[in-house]
Amino acid sequence: MGQQNLQNKTVAFLATDGFEQVELTEPWKAIKDAGANVQLVSIASGQIQGVHHEKQGDKFDVDQVVGDVTASDYDALVLPGGVFNPDALRVNEEAVDFVRDFFKQHKPVAAICHGPWTLIEAGVVEGRKVTSWPSLKTDLTNAGAHWVDEECVCDQGLVTSRRPDDLPAFCSKAIEEIAEGKHAKQTA
After folding, report:
1. Which of 46, 72, 74, 172 qualifies as a FRET site for 63, CA 20 to 30 Å off?
2. pLDDT for 67-104, tens place per residue?
3. In what order do the strands lie in the sheet with 19-20?
4. What is the pLDDT of residues 163-173, one digit of tens each?
């Protein structure tokens, strides 16, 4: 991990209250250590609350509000999981549009655990091979995705993983895809 050089890359982490803390902090550190500029984007300014499963975690300062930025401002997107976080993001029109625009611009996107819920709402999983937390299997399948139970899946710039135990593979593959840049078949 970290072998790729991400200098001159800016990566958005889209999250709100209830994100699984380790699914933000580990990819954040790995991607930052690889040389990227990282920014926490959320649906409101201030701070957001992480969780450690059902227990409260730390609070994190929001760098940008999703309504004030566009996918054009970034080279890639990371979507941490947690149950409450993607559930809140998928009902926020600006957040969903922000996610969809990364696909329209063929940019790498990495989503872990429950993070793919937001991908479903953005309409970007049809025909894609993905993985997620097991309870999302039916949702993803119903949205037209080919769901598999694997540690890390990459489909044309879309990186998905199942759970915190998969973070080493997830971080490594996300860094690789961000370093590669745009993928022509990564589209909405």
Report:
1. 172
2. 999 999 999 999 999 999 999 999 999 999 999 999 99
3. 19-20, 47-52, 55-61
4. 999 999 999 99
Instruction: Output the six-digit token pair for 120.
Output: 């479903």
Q: What is the DSSP letter of 7?
A: T
Q: Which helix H or strand E contains 26, and what residues bound it?
A: helix 21-33
Known catalytic residues? 113-114
DSSP 8-class letter at 151: S
Angle between helices 21-33 and 167-180 (to 10 degrees): 40
* DSSP helix, strand, coil percent of the chain (3-state; round to 5): 35, 25, 35
3-state secondary structure of 101: helix
> Among residues 68, 80, 69, 64, which one has the least CA distance to residue 27?
80
Distance CA 50, CA 67 (A): 21
CB atoms under 10 Å from CB of 182, counted, come to 12
pTM (predicted TM-score): 0.96
